[in-house]
Amino acid sequence: MKEKQQSIYKKVSLKELILFGGGEGFSLNILFVFITSYLMYYATDIYGISVAFAGLILTIGRVFDAISDPIIGNMIDRTNTKRGQFRPWIFWGSIIAPLAMVLMFSGLQVSMKFGYMTAMYLLFTLGYTMLAMSVHSARSTMTNDPAQRVWLTVPGMLTSIVAVGIVMIGTIPFTEAAGTNPLAQWRLWAVILAVLGFAGWRVFTLSLKNKDKYNPNRKKGEKITLSKQGEVLKSNKALQMLIISSATNDMATGFTTAVNVYFFAHVLRRTDLVSVSAMLILPIGLIMGVVVGLLANKYSKKNIFKWGSYLGLIIPTIMIIFRPFENIILLIILLAIGTGIGIITSQTRWAMVPDCVDYGEWKTGLRTPGIVTSVFTFFNKFGMAIPGVIVGAILAGLGFVVGGHVQGLAVQNAIVLMLFGGPLLGHLCSIVAIHFYPITRVFYKQMIEDLNARNAAKEN
């Protein structure tokens, strides 16, 4: 039985697994975490933009990001060059995204700060979309082994934790260094992170060398029409349920990332704890990343995602009911545990997207990793776009003081409820949706056997 299972799956080498997962995890998150965690704080407290306009910048950028996903995904599906299908997009994205991030945090003194920041954020999202769509679409071509697809995310999760650590531990101490110009320090820090991200992408492309190649058998001018793509999406129940489960979590994450620094700055009034919290998250994240991989050797990704959603209810409930904010040690531990639990669902869902690509091919005979992946990310990013404007509107309506060190009680309570109430509701919605996800461990094996038989018949 073991030999039969091994024969039906195409596996990836250990070197490719490490380079792919490790490269994309570090390179995507060194940019993404910095933008999502600090852009709003930088815009209001450092650059001097109102909180309402700062929230609007995030919303505009994320909506644009979501809309651009299907467009880029469609173009990736149609790409067939001498450098492969994915690497051309990674090359240009790895230049555009870091450059735009540096310009965004340059502190350029212009009369229309809102317009300038919006333009740079849109440029950043375009480059980032090129990178993210290429990476997530390429994942389905690397391996179709169900457990190995999860393990493909493990190096990425581990290196993403390193990236998160660099950003969360280093940003506040570096930018608040004594006797320095805040704008200059933020600009220099953005340059450092941009260089690290660019270098990471150069390493990542090595993993695609043997997988991402020109396809000489593809007919010249062959196109994947919109009607065919629509049929793939319409019949893909697995993708539909995964989108709902994941997008609701991302909506919750949108609230968390938008107000996390505000929680430390204006509720606890301890910005130094941002770094302390990140340091504790590192070992927990490392452990959870490996645990998810080990679980995938025995259990279906559907069950792992469901268990992670149930566990995700615990910490937000404790925070809302008991508010242990005076006990700093307990608070930091609980926050770190909550982040570690969140890794279960965030890591597993990216291993489930390639399964949805296979499911779409099984249902329609058409393999479209670009459009399947991009539609998935479209709804996830749309979910993350909504909280930005809501956070800005709520805080502005409650009297948030831009650059102020002391906020009113209503503002502080709103920050707490958005930080912990969002994840609570997100996990509840995910639990309901994932129940209807059709791909179990047994079903997936049967599906791959069927696809292999079809492909073998075509060759004969």
Question: Biggest β-sheet: count, sense, barrel?
Answer: none
Which architecture name does CATH use?
Up-down Bundle
User: What form results from the Cα inertia axes?
Assistant: globular
**Percentage of residues in DSSP E strands:** under 5%
Query: Percent of residues in helical segments?
Result: over 70%
Query: What is the β-strand count?
Result: 0
Order of helices and strands: HHHHHHHHHHHHHHHHH
The name of the CATH topology is Growth Hormone, Chain: A
Total discrete domains? 1
Number of helices: 17
Averaged pLDDT: 85
In terms of per-residue confidence, which ranges show pLDDT below 50 for 5 or more consecutive residues? 1-6
Structural class, judged by helices and strands? mainly alpha
CATH homologous group name:
MFS general substrate transporter like domains
User: Distance N terminus to C terminus?
Assistant: 26 Å
**Rg from alpha-carbon coordinates:** 22 Å
Task: Look at the structure and give the CATH class.
Answer: Mainly Alpha
Give an account of the 3D structure:
This protein has one domain: Growth Hormone, Chain: A (Up-down Bundle), CATH 1.20.1250. Helix content is 79%, strand content 0%. The chain has helices spanning 2-8, 14-46, 51-78, 87-104, 113-142, 146-151, 154-175, 182-204, 226-234, 237-267, 273-296, 301-311, 314-322, 328-364, 369-397, 409-434, 441-459. It is globular.
